[in-house]
Specification:
Length: 105
């Protein structure tokens, strides 16, 4: 860099600057209780991933029975997935008799 920027003009150099970004972190140190979360820098359009339960849910609880994280609140109708503990494995979607669970994003 010294050969490109003469003297102390190197202080003008910006290698890169991030204006907008989004990402996820995923903690699997406790396999029976994983934690994921999402973060953003700036104001990017939010990208939703994973699964969600729609209004055709009849509260049969089958999804809960196959969920490895037991992260579906079946006390509610429609049932509700706790996104912070979901593996995105899709087992709930496969078993739902009403096709009430759909992939997001
Ligand atoms: S399996 Fe489908 S219909 Fe049954 S509780 Fe889960 S989301 Fe609702
Ligand atoms: S995608 Fe997997 S972990 Fe997430 S709610 Fe469905 S069965 Fe549970």
């Amino acid at each position: 860099m010294q050969s490109i920027y003469p003297g102390d003009s190197r202080t003008a150099l910006e290698v890169f600057r991030i204006y907008e970004a989004e990402g996820e972190f995923f903690d699997i140190s406790d396999p029976s209780h994983i934690v994921r979360d999402h973060f953003t820098l700036g104001n990017p359009a939010e990208t939703k991933s994973g699964y969600e339960v729609t209004d055709t849910c009849i509260g049969c609880k089958l999804c809960y029975s196959v969920c490895p994280q037991k992260c579906i609140d079946i006390e509610k109708i429609p049932a509700e997935i706790n996104q912070n503990h979901c593996l995105h494995c899709g087992r709930c979607e496969e078993i739902c008799p009403k096709q009430a669970i759909r992939k997001r994003g």
